[in-house]
Each structure stands twice: as structure tokens, then as C-alpha cells.
Automatic annotation (TrEMBL):
Organism this protein belongs to: Modestobacter marinus
Organism domain of life: Bacteria
Start and end residues of each EAL domain: 19-272
Full protein name: Bifunctional diguanylate cyclase/phosphodiesterase
Length: 273
């Protein structure tokens, strides 16, 4: 063995004991307040005006380095840690949003919900308490849900969704186009927004099929009275195409990577002068 290399946690090969250790580490990190939340702006593709920001959770593991939320969010879902994780992200996001609004930026914030949270009957009360604590009206909060999450337990999740909708928060269908029977569910779900999955957006400038899917989704969303967001916008060509097709909002590395709340405040200040 030469030297020390930081190895990333890999749930596919690391096995049950590593998973158990990671779960313990995650529990400690949540309890110690060591998870961070970064924010990525959603902007009008024509004017560049920021209308909101998506909260994305971050975990810097002391030994493994940054662990992807694609790994630890599912881990949290299966080990009872998703409720405290969601609470942490909600509180951070609403506090950050209250801060931006205090500085004069008329901005909303979006939080991702996992499948497990959508069947948690305590979630609506948790959301209401977080809004009250931050002193924010419900319509500044958007909750991003995936179709797959809703589908995994439709009966219970639609009850929670209706209650959330009743609170006055906005609902967004994330990763649109990657699930099954997307069209039928858009009609049935009480949502305000669809986000076109980045797998289509990242390819659309070079791929006719991706471009056709993106255009059709924009038109479909508008026909249903929804706001349409494209995620994964990595270059100006893509943003210009989306602007021409009437896409309401864009999000992606071309505009900004996800950054800590103070960095987003600076970004907002630089834009508004
Ligand atoms: P998502 O909700 O679809 O989030 C979009 C992902 O795309 C984020 O990855 C973001 O950093 C990344 N992204 C943004 N712009 C671009 C771009 O221009 N190009 C490319 N290639 N990627 C871009 P991230 O932060 O690693 O999050 C991955 C997933 O983890 C999220 O996918 C979401 O499903 C989940 N996640 C993240 N934070 C939370 C959270 O607080 N709660 C829950 N339940 N899930 C979360
Ligand atoms: Ca999302
Ligand atoms: Ca997404
Ligand atoms: Ca995703």
C-alpha cells in the first residue's frame, strides 16, 4: 500500500458493512449540523432575471470527501434519516430565502422531496412550521417531486400532496420525461410546474430527438397551464433555443453552479446593479 488515497463511497461495491458505517456517519453529520445546502438559481432565459433557487444538500465526509446526494439521500430514505434530513434542508432553504428577500431580491426557493417524505403524514405540518419559523408566505416555497416518487405509493402520496397544495406551497414535477405515463399523471397531479430532465436539455442543441422532446414538453406544459423549467442548461446556445421556444425558466451551469447561500447573495447583488 502506497500512501493514503481517499476512496469515494460506492454503494454498488462497498457492501453491507460499509453501508452501515456510512449510515452511522450520516446520522452523526445530521445531528452535528454538518450537512450543507447549496443553491442554484432559476432564471428567466430572456432577461436573466432570477425568480428562484433550488436547494441541493451537500455532505463532505471526513474520510471519503464529498458524497453525492444520489448516494446518501437513498441511504437516508431507507434508514429513517430522511425526516431530519428534509427538516434540515427546509429550514436552511427558508432561512436563506428570507435573507435574500430581506436584501430586496424577490426570489422563491425550491426543496427536493424524496419518495419516502411524500408518504409521511407529518410532512405538511413540518412544512407549515418551517414557513412560520422563517416568516415567509407559502407561495415562495416550491417542492420538487419526481413522478416515480408519487407513483410508488399513489394513494398515500396524493393525500400528502393535496394537503401541501392546500397550504399554498407550489409543487413541481422534477425529472420530467424520465418516468412512465408522464402525460396522464401531469393531468391528475395538483402541480404548478414541470422541470424537463437534464438528460434531454443537455443533448438538445445537437440532437433532433432531444430537441423535439423539449419543445413538445414546453408546449404541453403551457397547454396545461404550467410553468416550464429546463434544468441542465450548460451553454448559451441551449439557453437561446429555450428562450425562443418560450421556456419560462432555465437552470444550469451556464447560469451558475449550485453555491452556498452567501455566494448566491453576492451573485444576486452583482446582477441587480
Ligand atoms: P435533481 O433534483 O434533478 O437536481 C439536479 C442535479 O443536477 C443536481 O445534482 C445539480 O447540481 C445538477 N446540475 C445542475 N445544473 C447542471 C448542469 O448544467 N449540468 C449538469 N450535468 N448537472 C447540473 P446534485 O446536487 O448532485 O443532486 C442530485 C440529486 O440528488 C438531485 O437531482 C435530487 O434528486 C437529489 N437531492 C439533492 N438534494 C436533495 C435534498 O435536499 N433532498 C432530497 N430528497 N433529494 C436531494
Ligand atoms: Ca430537483
Ligand atoms: Ca431534476
Ligand atoms: Ca435527478
Amino acid at each position: 500500500q502506497t500512501g493514503q488515497t481517499l476512496s469515494a463511497y460506492d454503494p454498488a461495491t462497498d457492501g453491507a458493512s460499509a453501508r452501515l458505517r456510512m449510515t452511522g456517519d450520516l446520522r452523526d453529520a445530521i445531528a452535528a449540523g454538518l450537512l450543507e445546502v447549496h443553491y442554484q438559481p432559476k432564471v428567466d432565459p430572456v432577461t436573466g432575471d432570477p425568480l428562484g433557487a433550488e436547494a441541493l444538500v451537500r455532505w463532505e465526509h471526513p474520510a471519503h470527501g464529498r458524497v453525492s446526494p444520489e448516494e446518501f439521500v437513498p441511504l437516508a430514505e431507507h434508514t429513517g434519516l430522511i425526516r431530519p434530513l428534509t427538516a434540515l434542508v427546509l429550514d436552511a432553504a427558508l432561512t436563506a430565502c428570507a435573507g435574500w428577500r430581506h436584501l430586496g431580491h424577490d426570489l422563491g426557493v425550491a426543496v427536493n422531496l424524496s419518495a419516502r417524505s411524500l408518504t409521511d403524514p407529518g410532512l405538511p405540518a413540518q412544512v407549515r412550521a418551517a414557513l412560520t419559523a422563517a416568516g415567509l408566505p407559502p407561495d415562495v416555497l416550491t417542492l420538487e417531486i419526481t413522478e416515480t416518487a408519487v407513483m410508488s405509493d399513489l394513494r398515500r402520496s396524493s393525500g400528502v400532496l393535496r394537503e401541501l397544495r392546500g397550504l399554498g406551497v407550489r409543487l413541481s414535477v422534477d425529472d420530467f420525461g424520465t418516468g412512465q405515463s408522464s402525460l396522464a399523471y401531469l393531468k391528475q397531479l395538483p402541480v404548478h410546474e414541470v422541470k424537463i430532465d437534464k438528460s434531454f436539455v443537455m443533448g438538445m442543441a445537437d440532437d433532433r430527438a432531444d430537441a423535439a422532446i423539449v419543445r413538445a414538453t414546453i408546449d404541453l406544459g403551457h397547454a396545461l397551464g404550467l410553468r416550464v423549467v429546463a434544468e441542465g442548461v450548460e451553454d448559451l446556445t441551449t439557453q437561446s433555443l429555450l428562450a425562443g421556444w418560450g421556456c419560462d425558466l432555465v437552470q444550469g451551469y451556464h447560469v451558475s453552479r449550485p453555491v452556498p447561500a452567501p455566494a448566491l447573495s453576492q451573485w444576486l447583488a452583482a446582477r441587480s446593479t
